[in-house]
Specification:
mainly alpha
Length: about 100
């Protein structure tokens, strides 16, 4: 194989890898956006429940803790999923928006 054909082969490989990286980056962006959307929906739902007096913020925090514990017991879930649930729970604990109750 000539030096030129080796260089062409390397360029082709790099080009393919760049396209694959681009596709993966787009997928990561979609997953991140999806995760943010889930968090916003959960936040809106919890806010609506709190405003209606159906559940307090403290009860939501306890509910999230129960969900986290059960998810850990089931096993097989990626650690990132557990951390994501903990982040939602932490957000609930820090939420001081008007209309929320303890």
């Amino acid at each position: 194989m000539s030096e030129q054909s080796q260089m062409d082969a390397i360029i082709d490989i790099l080009d393919q890898q760049q396209r694959q990286i681009s596709v993966l980056a787009k997928r990561c962006d979609r997953f991140e956006a999806h995760g943010m959307a889930i968090a916003l929906v959960f936040q809106a739902l919890s806010g609506a429940l709190q405003v209606r007096g159906a559940i307090s913020r403290d009860e939501l925090v306890v509910l999230m803790q129960t969900l986290i514990e059960r998810t850990e017991r089931i096993g097989g879930k990626p650690p990132e999923a557990i951390e994501y649930l903990r982040a939602i729970q932490k957000g609930l604990m820090l939420d001081q928006s008007p209309g929320t109750t303890n």
